[in-house]
Specification:
By secondary structure, the protein is an alpha/beta fold. The protein has 16 helices and 19 strands.
Length: about 500
């Protein structure tokens, strides 16, 4: 965790400093003051490094003088083209270069309070580490940065602008923590229990166990859970920021009904062996993060409640473990979903859609939402199609799809629109049940999975985000270190903020 504070825009007398500089102006403000303190040394160093402030450029001055240990330069590009997300990337780039300093400062002449707040957000997101289980790490391997000052012309305004972004960052960090946990620690009941912490933010949390879901007719979800000793759960989280903006106990006790709510649903397979249709051993350890869709929904609910979003939002997560055993679901089994529709399970490794089928049906039936968005690490096919650059977006509503694409562009969390259609839907028709849980062969695997889900949304405006390629990163990203990315929290928070808050 890093302590971020906004202070007056003046040169620090010691430590490390990052300067964010544009390419369309000379040295002004902090940069001019530093150049003067170094007798023109900053300008000479920039010339030697061919640093012109272009976006993505960086340079480091070691022991430059003026009491500073290091100065890191980060380019912002042309000021007229700077976006909030680019400011976040600049803040993240600066922090990545300042990790070995216990305390550091970031200055950016000419940036207003709002942009500086986004610099701080990027810095916090990039500083994240999940070292909970590392006990023998050498001191030189550990990041030391714990205090960061953002030098601002109006520190009070910048601090105020940062407050909702700090809540957003906390939501992303919660998602990353959940996704990073090993499956022997984070099993369905434990994951459900961790959502109780959201109650301190004013979120109503309801936890459904196996018996509750049997009463609801969740044959599809419970079929997935048959092989595991870990009991399944469903969690319903309600933030009523429009109906009950003060977050009173009445809302948490269910005495206030949501008004025209928006709904988010997450797949939470805390470990996925594939079941009887077992996966290959190589890479199976990655399947601890097959609950990333649920992790994103939990982090999003924390972010919305943390910043007191003026919206009625419901988050639902279906939590199971998919294991092979003598009691496990078999290929060829037929299950009855909560909707009453029957499903032939031809492949027990196509389990996420079975979990989502029951939760989606329950969500639309109980809450009558304005729209639903589900997130799931659903298919390897989407990684084949889109790699690790974009999540797949499937939608039955054009306005919702466009709003999601706009939010993706604004936050840098990429989406790519994928097709739905009758021809694909026919591929999951079945000879002995209403549908089968996979299409024929390898063709269009992510699309037929989405078509399967669409059969359970009952014509409610709906979007499905297949985030299989985005939930975990094998290398450092723009604002996320290697590992769990927290993908989708910033995207969906932006969707809400731009279009659905009252």
């Amino acid at each position: 965790m890093i302590d971020i504070a906004f202070t007056r825009a003046e040169l620090p007398k010691s430590g490390a400093l990052a300067l964010l500089l544009g390419e369309d102006g000379g040295l002004t403000g902090l940069a001019a003051a530093l150049d003067a303190a170094l007798d023109g040394g900053l300008g000479r160093a920039m010339a030697a490094a061919a640093f012109k402030g272009k976006r993505g450029q960086s340079a480091t001055l070691l022991a430059p003088g003026a009491g500073l240990d290091r100065v890191v330069l980060v380019g912002l590009g042309k000021s007229a083209e700077l976006t909030a997300h680019q400011a976040e990337i600049a803040g993240a780039k600066a922090v990545a270069a300042l990790m070995r300093d216990e305390a550091a400062a970031i200055g950016a002449d000419g940036l207003g309070a709002a942009m500086l707040a986004h610099v701080a957000l990027g810095a916090r997101l990039r500083r994240y580490r999940f070292d909970k289980y590392r006990t023998t790490m050498k001191e030189e391997q550990k990041p030391k940065l714990v205090k960061l000052r953002i030098l601002a012309g109006d520190e009070a305004a910048a601090g105020t602008a940062y407050q909702p972004l700090a809540a957003l960052a906390a939501g992303v960090e919660l998602t990353r923590d959940l996704v990073s946990e090993p499956a022997n620690v984070l099993f369905p009941a434990e994951m459900a229990d961790r959502t109780k912490a959201l109650r301190t933010l004013g979120v109503k949390v309801e936890i459904f166990d196996r018996r509750d879901m049997e009463k609801l007719g969740f044959g599809a979800l419970l079929g997935v859970a048959m092989g595991s000793d870990c009991e399944p759960r469903m969690v319903v989280m309600s933030w009523l920021g429009a109906s009950d903006p003060e977050g009173t106990s009445k809302a948490k006790k269910g005495k206030i009904a949501p008004k025209d709510p928006i709904v988010f649903v997450g797949k939470g397979v805390t470990f996925d062996t594939g079941g009887i249709s077992i996966k290959p051993a190589g890479g199976m350890e990655d399947m601890k993060w097959d609950m990333a869709g649920a992790g994103t929904v939990i982090g999003l609910m924390a972010a919305l409640a943390g910043r007191k979003a003026k919206v009625d939002a419901i988050g639902l997560v279906g939590l199971v473990e998919n294991m092979p055993s003598g009691t496990a679901q078999r290929p060829g089994d037929v299950v009855k979903s909560a909707s009453g529709q029957t499903i032939e399970v031809l492949n027990t490794d196509a389990e996420g859609r079975l979990v989502l089928a029951d939760v989606l049906w329950y969500a639309q039936d109980r809450f009558k939402p304005r729209f639903m968005v589900d997130l799931a690490t659903l298919t390897g096919a989407i990684i084949v199609a889109l790699g690790n650059e974009n999540a797949g977006l499937f939608a039955n509503d054009e306005a919702l799809a466009q709003n999601l694409l706009d939010a993706a562009k604004a936050t840098g969390e990429g989406l790519w629109r994928m097709p739905l259609g009758e021809a694909y839907d026919k591929m999951i028709d079945c000879d002995i049940a209403d549908m089968k849980n996979i299409g024929g062969g390898r063709a269009g695997g992510s699309i037929t999975a989405a078509q399967f889900l669409q059969r359970f949304v009952n014509k409610v405006p709906w979007a499905h985000l297949d985030i299989a390629g985005m939930a975990w990163a094998g290398k450092d990203g723009a604002v996320a270190p290697k590992g769990a990315t927290g993908f989708g929290v910033r995207l969906l928070d932006r969707l809400v903020a731009d279009h659905y808050e009252h």
